[in-house]
Amino acid sequence: MLKIENLHATVGGSQILRGISLEIPNGEVHAIMGPNGSGKSTLSYVLSGRDGYEVTQGTATLNGINLLDLEVDERAAAGVFLAFQYPHEIPGVATFIFLRHALNSVRKARGDEELSTPDFMRLVKGKAAELGVKDEILKRPLNVGFSGGEKKRMEILQMAILEPSLCILDETDSGLDIDALKTVSQGVNALRSPDRSMLVITHYQRLLDYIVPDKVHVLSKGKIRHSGGKELALELEKSGYAEFVDEDAA
Amino acid sequence: MTAGTTIQKTDAELGLARQFDETRANLPGNDWVREQREEAIRTFARLGLPHRRVEAWKYTDLRSMLKDAKTPADADLNSVTDAELYQALGADLHGLGAHHIVFVDGVYDEENSFIIGDEAGLVHMTSLAETLNNPPEWFKSNFNKVNPRQDDHVGTLNTAFMRDGAVIEIVKDARLKRPVHLIFISSSKSAEAITERHFIHVAQGASATILESYVHLRAPDTQRNSVTELKLETGAKVNHIKFQHEGAKASHLSNWMVSIGENANYRGFQLTIGAKVSRNTINVNFHGSHSQADISGVALLWDEQHSDTTMDIVHGVPNTLSRELFKTVLDDRGRAGFQGKLVVKPDAQKTDAKQMAHGMLLSETAEFDAKPELEIYADDVVCGHGATSGQLDEDMMFYMRQRGMSMDTVQTLLILAFVGEAFELIEDEDIRAAFTKMAEAWLGGKSDE
Q1: Set of chain B residues whose Cβ sits within 8 Å of the Cβ of A106
Q2: How far apart are CA B347 and CA B360, in angstroms?
Q3: Cα dihedral angle (B411, B412, B417, B420), rounded to 10 degrees?
Q4: Complex-level ipTM
């Protein structure tokens, strides 16, 4: 379970998060929606520990572990996984080598044995097949020259391999056509599990047709302004954010 | 310089002149060789050690770096065991299945040298000392003429002091499967100057891999001056590779002079890990059309190491191609310079020349300087160059660490990827794998600090 209380954070000296409180119990998927500049991506970077994002107040724990005390890789080992809006290209590092280092780093930190190369290859090829990722792409440098859809599928493949307890999906739908969106959503849905919580950050309601959330939160100016069930997303699609954002004026 | 100005000689310059007087009688060679030496030392007296106002030495002020001239190594062989060679080279380079030609402190070590029987008729090796005592006509007409440069300060010192080296002939149409491994090992406990000269002739249609390894056992502060003259005849193909891992206080002055004939293919590579100061000069001349040169290298530097790669590629005939790719990783106060001169002469139409040099800085105090120089006198040519200097990408590092990898793992993967692009240009898989492992070990050594 992810538990965030009164989280404040600054980026380059400006206050971006202004007191976020949020609980995502295991097994649940929560969506965060909000206009540009509301702090959605900042929240994902603060939770994953990116440099330059400074927490000034509040707490964030995952299954009782204080995330804010941990380095980026320690948070990953503790179960935080961020699916990037724009996954980085890593020239010169073959995808399967990247995946093997990631998995074995996480396994080591969690006290598990590192996987042998044959066991690792079996695992990756199995998961890749489920997501429609071709073996051939695993030999190429990670994300280099991949299409938008291939990059997002690769993010989900990494998620499937690393088995995190918190998945943060940052604008996963951006740059995807409808077919790719379906495949990626199916991949995400297959990873829904009673011991995993998910935070889906999105600008548009479209993604939530495929990844149906248990709860929807509206983020504006660094604070959650409104929360509701999955129907809230549809309302937002019709009325826009204005109604919820205006509450801020008070 | 205006007439009447005299430049104060440095201790090293005075020392070199004195040492020449003291050792000339003991250096090998007949009268013809002695004349070459005398002329060289006269030229050196005029030129002195190069300094930063000499354009080709802009990044390496040898005049101030070379504080003193070490005593020349003597002509006696300091024997080493094969186990010591193994220790200095590492298992991978020792185990290449190559022909071994070994020099200990600059002197040919016949005991440890061998040409393996299955290729014995294809490679002929004579020591330079022996050749100088009785130089054949072909040697006289080629020596110092493969690719000479005017006013070559360090080259003249080499000619003046050369004691030994390898004179190699790869016979016509020979296709060597085994690398020819020239192993230069410094073993002396005291600091010494070693001057080596090699002449390699690759006859028409022959192909070979020639590996030069400069390694040390004990000697931490050797001063080495090594010149390789390499001539590729029509249709020859050579993979010419250097591994330099000299002692931490050593200076390594190396000059490759390469002449490429028609339809010939030259692939050069240099891995620089050792020495306090290293200078890699690579001069290439195209003498025949439809020929190609691919020259690349990796330097891994830390502490206060200084390395300079200076190239001079001359396209003198039509339809030739050259490519250069150099990658340098610098930590601590490491410093590297790269100078790439490309000359395209008026007749050299259809020249295709490209050059890239990249530096990766791992510390705030490291420095990488790159200077391309293009002199193009023909109009129908494609020439390009590029140089970058940068740090590891923060966004990439965050992405990889978010996947659970430690900072060390991330740095190792990204640096290996950076240098890997150059290693991939090495055709010999075993040498490529050995060099990659050395880069990994270098990175491992860093993280143990």
Answers
A1: 403-404
A2: 38
A3: 140
A4: 0.96
